[in-house]
């Protein structure tokens, strides 16, 4: 393992950065936080002071001009991901950008092209994929313990609907539950099945109180070999966060699939009515994500999940949005 520490700059003071990613970087083996930027210097200084970050900038451009910053984390609203990813690439910075990477395929393609041209790494921040339980889960499937996969069901919902000014509830900012949390079950099914969907059918609740973004959606994602993902996602519902993989001879349940809770890193394998809990060590999946990113960069190795994966995922997400708006099945080509 390379013993260097990657120096990170944080573009913005979003809650996900302050509460999850910055602490994860600080507690990681291969990384450290060097700088943070906000649109206002006062906010950057206040955040830097609270989190013991050495440098604070009053604009994103200033941070990107810092020669000591090697990589940036972008937790900005969805509609700003493309702009600042491209600017960061042009500044020679490696990039970890929040999901969804962009609002559509074209934007993702432009981001990947800019990063390839600048010879920098670009990763989409799906932290759950770095949790070791998914390696164990896929090994269980490959062993044949639950037989052939017949289907996957996954949910990711929460209730934040009273926060009317939240960027999730602004259409022009890329708001909506499919962009925000629906992308997780879709990503997970693609990862587990190691295949790409053929068609989607989605129904959604578009709220007039929240700029007509989809506050709840449910869908059917058709994969090859007659396997499907059924899912629902929402931002105006009780918190849920799980995956169930149904096989011909058994099933696997992940009770806390995307956001892990204390004591809920495990998964459950059931066969012929008998269940066993597969214990997994308590880990910080955000820390594993940044350590993996840094080691890929320093060792000049491919990322575990290449940026092209984001292109495939957004293709499915936008097809789901199109299906919900048109109330029809959409084939993915």
From TrEMBL:
Keywords, in A-Z order = Oxidoreductase
Q: Which Gene3D superfamilies does the record associate with it?
A: Dihydrodipicolinate Reductase, domain 2, NAD(P)-binding Rossmann-like Domain
Residue limits of the Gfo/Idh/MocA-like oxidoreductase N-terminal domain? 7-123
Q: Does the keyword Oxidoreductase apply?
A: yes
Per UniProt, residues of the GFO/IDH/MocA-like oxidoreductase domain are 134-253
- List, in alphabetical order, the Gene Ontology terms for molecular function in this entry: nucleotide binding; oxidoreductase activity
InterPro entries assigned to the protein according to its UniProt record, in alphabetical order: Gfo/Idh/MocA-like_OxRdtase_N, Gfo/Idh/MocA_domain, GFO_IDH_MocA-like_dom, NAD(P)-bd_dom_sf
Entry's transmembrane regions: none
Q: So what family is this one in?
A: Belongs to the Gfo/Idh/MocA family.
Protein name (Swiss-Prot/TrEMBL) = Gfo/Idh/MocA family oxidoreductase
């Amino acid at each position: 393992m390379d013993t260097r520490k990657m120096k990170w700059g944080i573009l913005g003071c979003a809650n996900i950065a302050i509460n999850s990613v910055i602490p994860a970087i600080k507690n990681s083996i291969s990384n450290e936080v060097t700088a943070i930027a906000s649109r206002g210097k006062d906010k950057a200084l206040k955040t830097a002071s609270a989190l013991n970050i050495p440098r604070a900038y009053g604009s994103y451009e200033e941070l990107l001009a810092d020669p000591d910053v090697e990589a940036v984390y972008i937790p900005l609203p969805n509609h700003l991901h493309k702009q600042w990813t491209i600017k960061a690439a042009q500044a020679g910075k490696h990039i970890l950008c929040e999901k969804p990477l962009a609002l559509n395929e074209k934007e993702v393609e432009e981001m990947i092209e800019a990063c390839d041209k600048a010879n920098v790494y670009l990763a989409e921040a799906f932290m759950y994929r770095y949790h070791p339980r998914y390696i164990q889960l896929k090994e269980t499937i490959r062993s044949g313990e639950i037989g052939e996969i017949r289907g996957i069901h996954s949910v990711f919902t929460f209730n934040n609907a009273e926060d009317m000014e939240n960027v999730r509830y602004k259409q022009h900012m890329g708001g909506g539950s499919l962009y925000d949390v629906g992308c997780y079950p879709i990503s997970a099914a693609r990862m587990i099945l190691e295949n790409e969907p053929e068609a989607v059918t989605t129904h959604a609740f578009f709220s007039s109180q929240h700029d007509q973004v989809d506050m709840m959606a449910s869908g059917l994602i058709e994969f090859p070999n007659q396997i499907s993902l059924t899912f629902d996602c929402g931002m105006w519902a009780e918190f849920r966060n799980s995956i169930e993989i149904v096989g011909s001879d058994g099933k696997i349940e992940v009770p806390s699939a995307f956001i892990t809770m204390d004591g809920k890193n495990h998964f459950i394998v059931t066969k012929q009515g008998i269940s066993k809990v597969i214990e997994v060590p308590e880990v910080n999946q955000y820390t594993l994500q940044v350590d993996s990113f840094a080691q890929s960069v320093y060792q000049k190795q491919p990322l575990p999940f290449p940026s092209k994966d984001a292109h495939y995922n957004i293709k499915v997400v936008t097809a789901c949005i199109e299906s919900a708006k048109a109330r029809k099945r959409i084939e993915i080509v």
